[in-house]
Amino acid sequence: MLGRICVRSASRLASSKRSFATEAVVARYKEHGRPENVLQLEKQTLPSAGKNQVLVKMLMAPINPSDINMIEGTYPILPTLPATGGNEGLAQVVEVGSDVKGIKINDLVLPSKPGLGTWTSHALLSETDLIKLPDSAASVKPEYLASLSVNPATALRLLDDFVELKSGDVIIQNAANSMVGLSVMQIAHSRGIKTINIIRNRPGSQQLIEQMKQYGGYIVVTEDFLNTPEFKRLISDLPKPKLALNGAGGPTVAEMARILGENGTIVTYGAMSRKPVTLPASPFLFKNISLKGFWLSKWIQQHSQAERTAMYSQLVDLINAGKLRMWLERHDLSKISEAVRRAQEPMRDRKVVLVLDK
To answer: C-alpha angle with apex 97: 91 to 100, nearest 5 degrees?
Structure first.
């Protein structure tokens, strides 16, 4: 557990009056391209923290699709090159500057915004670049905390920000076995909201369906099941969904629109299939459905650090209550090329998380 990791490492790592440099191992890229080709491990020397700076030891960091897109040069937010990979991760505070007030040594922290570069053993950042996690986070697995601020956070916003949902309501989603989809499914279940979950046709789909049902999926089906009489019978006794969540694009969006209830809302948050959203006019004309979009980076820009801290605390509470689980696999930073290749493989059941503190 992370609490034991922190206690064991605190005396070795932490000092508020360091006067020596720290050598960091960093996954850097000097040009855009395929991550496995352009990423290189380098050593960097970091000075002691300045007055408003915080030196952190990075513990773990996931590899998200946005990380891959950023390295490829196709993401809307791009850092200045050369750059360090990674936008999300978990760190422990090693040193704080004399003017830092809201963060102390040994605190567990998350990046407050994208583009900071988290695939590194250490980082020297400003206090405003970090968000302190609540003390209750010490009992959560470190890989969970490292993966908290993008996918589970997106799931929470999708459920809270678009439609007023109550126990007994129904929502429908594609990309249901993605990290966002699995988080939506579990958080909705904890609130008594039923989910219709659509996954791609794939080998071993039945095993995945059963696993998703164990963790709160009310109905889990493959794409090819949507147009069958059996599916219509399966959902016939349910209220019409109020909300449809689209993380994939492609033809399933039209199917979700067909199933959606009057005045329902479709929210697009991703495009994993890289296929366009194509909808007929009838759901708009006869059911008055709405089509909206969500980008977490924009939400972060528009909300205060206090609001983000409250969101992360809410997610930590869900994990501690056993209501939110993540499917992850660890890879060492020293094998970054293998890790990014693995992260880009289709039909993966687990998100890749880099171990940075070895």
So the answer is: 80
Q: Is 190 exposed, middle or buried (0-12, 13-18, 19+ CB in 10 A)?
A: middle
Measured in whole angstroms, the distance separating CA 34 from the mean position of its chain's CA atoms is 21
Rounded-to-integer distance, Cα 132 and Cα 37, Å: 34
Residue with tokens 């929210």: 267
Nearest to 93 by CA among 130, 143, 42: 130
Give alpha helix (H) positions in 53-120.
Answer: 65-72
Active-site hit among 29, 75, 144, 269: 75
Helix axes 179-190, 305-320, angle to 10 degrees: 70
b/e for 143-180, b at 16 or more Cβ within 10 A?
bbbbbbbbbbbbbbbbbeebbebeeebbbbbbbbbbbb
Give the CA diameter of the chain.
Answer: 71
pLDDT in 10s for each residue of the chain, 358 residues: 334 344 334 333 444 445 557 999 999 999 999 999 999 999 999 999 999 999 999 999 999 999 999 999 999 889 999 999 999 999 999 999 999 999 999 999 999 988 899 999 999 999 999 999 999 999 999 999 999 999 999 999 999 999 999 999 999 999 999 999 999 999 999 999 999 999 998 888 899 999 999 999 999 999 999 989 999 999 999 999 999 999 999 899 999 999 999 999 999 998 877 788 889 899 999 999 999 999 999 999 999 999 999 999 999 999 999 999 999 999 999 999 999 999 999 888 899 999 998 7
**What secondary structure, in 3-state letters, does 295-336 show?**
CHHHHHHHCCHHHHHHHHHHHHHHHHCCCCCCCEEEEEHHHH
**Contact between residue 57 and residue 152 where contact means Cβ atoms under 8 Å apart:** no
Q: Is 312 considered catalytic here?
A: no
Burial class (CB in 10 A: 0-12, 13-18, 19+), 203: exposed
Distance CA 220, CA 199 (A): 7
Percentage helix, strand, coil for the chain under 3-state DSSP, each rounded to 5: 35, 25, 40
Contact 327, 182 (CB under 8 A): yes
